[in-house]
Amino acid sequence: MNGKLHSETGPTFSADDMRAQILNPFVHKLELDNTYDKIRTAIFTVILLPFRVIVILFLIVTAWFLACIGLYGLTEDDLREKPMTGWRRSLKPLICFIGKMSYLAGGMAITVRGRQVSRKEAPILVVAPHSSFLDSCIVYATKMSSVIVRKESMDNYVGKLINYTQPVYVWRDDPNSRQNTIKEIIERATSKEDWPQVLIFPEGTCTNRSCLITFKPGGFYPGVPVQPVTIRYPNAKDTVTWTWDGPGALKLLWLTLTQVHSSCEIEFLPVYYPSEEEKRDPKLYARNVRDVMAKALGVPVLDYTYDDCRLIAQAKQMGIPGGAFVREVSELRTLLGLTRTQPELDLARMGVQEQTRWVSAQEFAQRLGVPHDSRLLRLYKIFEHRTLGMVCFPDYLLCAVFLSIPHVTVSQLLEYAFKLYDTTGTGRLKMHNFEEVATRCLGLSHEEAQNTFRQADLDEKGYLTYEDFMSFFQNESDFSLNFIEAPQKKVQ
User: Fold this and answer.
1) Is 321 among the domain residues?
2) Confidence (pLDDT) at 479
């Protein structure tokens, strides 16, 4: 496995390939969908989970205690000035062993393939895909390589263990944080001192491992050789994926610890030696390393970024229809040519009458003025009502408005929504129509929307106009504070 790789390897999946299949790397669905799984999980929760938790806690506390001993007498400045030596460094293999045992105690076996090269051969380890908090096992598998971590994350007892890796700190409050982080990575990677290898997750956020998203170039600025490292979880039930739309950390941890057995595979790929062109262009270097890793994993690449995650989270928080899929909606609208003409804005301004709210795929294509082809059908399926087999056209238009207007604000969305969900065309929304608006633009529950309607309908007219609601929205400080009109980062 110890060979040389260059950019000539070439990409495995081109942008054109991806046009045939739109993926969403930020969605993970996990449910106990049969009686057997539910009964087995319940039994193991009682007889297996407590034992595993006790053993894991014991091992973590032991590792933490050893880290405290190793860090005794050292300040954070000391950790950043020079690498550990002597007895402090000799504790690392023991801490790594205990860390691996904590995973084994939880039922997860870690298998390592390939060979980790020395720092002299590759000062930087590039790890992907990043899909779970359980990916931290890579720290133990790589002999406690230096991770990149936010300084705020260190303010807890686990911080001692992280500090023992001599991490590269990211200071969120520092406006020059990105430049300073890159500078420190360069210094570490090119130093003649025996620092630990720097370990980076270049995707910068968690995905569901269906593809590799855009690699941030920070770890590629030094222009030194890197060793790609892949992580797989080849389990029958995926209880580890922790991404933007899916189960929370506690549920995943519970379901993982109640599995009889689970596994993680870590593979060290051959060292990637950059060309002169890649050394001059860190983004090109990052893309080519991603292509090599995607080929090894057998997955496509997708030019999604952390900003896309934020957009999805924002759309979901506000209740925008299709919020979890706004990145795919944006991509499909581009493929259909809708981002150039933006017919949805004109359609939204006119409003949608009751009799034309629900549309078939053919009607959907006709209203948008686009071909009734596979791209249109994929867009249609995102908004299709499972029972009716049709699309609520106002839902699609509101999502398109959210994507079409740069830095769209809540008040702008509300103005469009009041027209879209006004089935009478009078500019007056009754309670059930207002519920549709409030759940889609303000992220309110139906009960919260009903209570808000009653508060805003001061004269008890039984309806609200856009002006009525905005007056209430602006005057009720307690209500307004929950919906600060921050500009939205758009995907183009």
Assistant:
1) yes
2) 55
